[in-house]
Specification:
By secondary structure, the chain is α+β, with helices and mostly antiparallel strands. It has helices at about 25-35, 35-45, 50-55, 65-75, 95-120, and strands at about 5, 10-15, 50, 80-85, 90-95. It is globular and about 50 Å long. The strands form 2 sheets. Strands 3-5-4 form a 3-stranded antiparallel beta sheet. A two-stranded antiparallel ribbon has the order 1-2. It has a single domain, classed as Winged helix-like DNA-binding domain superfamily/Winged helix DNA-binding domain (Arc Repressor Mutant, subunit A, Orthogonal Bundle). The protein is built from 5 helices and 5 strands. The relative contact order is 0.12.
Length: about 120
């Protein structure tokens, strides 16, 4: 099997090449690597949250940007939006299996940023 392919239980999937200008994996990288997306994925790692909870947890995000971020994550299959039929109605957001698969790499990058921010700040002019 060529190295650009991997076998799964149900199908052969083709590995992307993020350095190729025509590869759609660039869009997914853009989605998960964005500041608010990465923070939203991290905030949802421990389970479902309501919009207001996410807004408070992601200090500094506007409601408009949070809405846009959650929609983009949902459009790419990383987040699941569920309307809870209670009175009053409310919506919960949670990670899909695909979203959960991004938690580890994003957590590692977040930890790296927390550990090295002072070094980077020292280089700013």
């Amino acid at each position: 099997m060529p190295s650009s392919q991997t076998r799964t239980d149900t199908a052969i999937t083709h590995r992307g090449d993020v350095y190729s200008s025509s590869c759609p994996c660039r869009e997914l990288l853009d989605v998960v690597a964005g500041k608010w997306s990465a923070l939203a994925i991290g905030a949802l790692a421990d389970g479902p949250r309501r919009f207001g909870e996410l807004e408070r947890l992601l200090a500094g995000i506007s409601p408009k940007v949070l809405t846009s971020t959650l929609r983009r994550l949902e459009d790419h299959g990383l987040v699941v939006r569920q309307v809870i039929p209670e009175v009053p109605l409310h919506v919960e957001y949670s990670l899909s299996d695909l979203g959960h698969s991004a938690v580890g790499p994003i957590a590692a990058l977040r930890t790296w940023a927390e550990d090295h921010h002072a070094q980077a700040q020292a280089h700013l002019r």
